[in-house]
Amino acid sequence: MTCITHTEFDGKTEGVTVAEAYSGSIKDRTILVTGVNKRGIGFGIVQAFASQSPRRLILAGRSASKVQECIDDLRSQYPDVDIDYRLLQVDLSAQESVRKAASVVLSWTDVPTIDLVINNAGVMNLPQKLLSPEGIEMHLATNHIGHFLLTNLILPKLIAAAKNSPPGSVRIINVTSLAAYLSGLRASDMNFNKASSEIPEKERPNAAFLRGGGLEADDHMSYIPMAAYGHSKACNILFSVGLNEKLYEKYGILSLSLHPGEVRSDLHRTTDLDWLDKATKSRESQGFFWKTPTQAAATALVGALDPNLVRPTSDGHGYFLNDCRIGKAPPHAVDETDAHKLWELSEGFVGESFAW
């Protein structure tokens, strides 16, 4: 059974501590991270990577000014480290923006390879159902479809990196959440148009779990904010399952997913704060604590760098990391049949097939 190298790491480990432990796997590499802004996990991730002299950090975000703020801060923190910082503006909810960003990356002739991609950007708990410009439910569009499209479009540069790298060292890391337990793949109703009672039982959200958390949920409701978020997070894990099937044997590219922990970041900007405070207090007795962005970054770095992590087993063990350790993924999120189905549905949403 797979075990991480540094068993002393846990939920309070700092990202920089992990980076120092795996410094040789960072130095001189090219790394792309989405969802980078000063208040979020993305900045904690790039901050940790920057401490160990990567060749290049590609910082992707919706706001160019916020990404530039991060780059300026990193240059100030690490003035003696020669890193090629690249700003990549992208709105992952809009496919036109994603295609434009991918075109920019592919046009960089001085960036022939990309070694690590951390798909971190996301939205959460949108109170009203919103659709992307392409008519896709917004959690799904931003958290999964945007990353599905971006990753596939820039994949030639990861394949190029993998040609001269040990198997499993070029990686695609999908930041998911424990919210993946709330919903399996809603294949028959990806846009939450139907009431839960109208879709197959296996696709219905976990209403009991939602109600236990103080959220409204019944079989007559169609759009439930946290269920939609959970659906997109289950898709993140299923995306890793699909990527490994297509890429690991042929190219040696590995994909894993992780729950970073919870951070008081802009991700909660649309969450009811009274509910959030009540939910926090009820979970504190079970050991819950808010992580700093640098603590939340740690598990992403373990997933990206630990050499002991290999392609997960067919039962799904190893796909999901939590608190810098291998955790238990929801069974519905590592189902290979659903991973196949999600890949097909995702290709339909973007209007393009990817045969790797």
From TrEMBL:
Record-given protein name: Oxidoreductase
Lineage, opening ranks: Eukaryota, Fungi, Dikarya, Ascomycota, Pezizomycotina
GO molecular function: oxidoreductase activity
Any Pfam family hit: adh_short
Domain of life: Eukaryota
Entry's family note: Belongs to the short-chain dehydrogenases/reductases (SDR) family.
Keywords, ordered alphabetically: NADP, Oxidoreductase
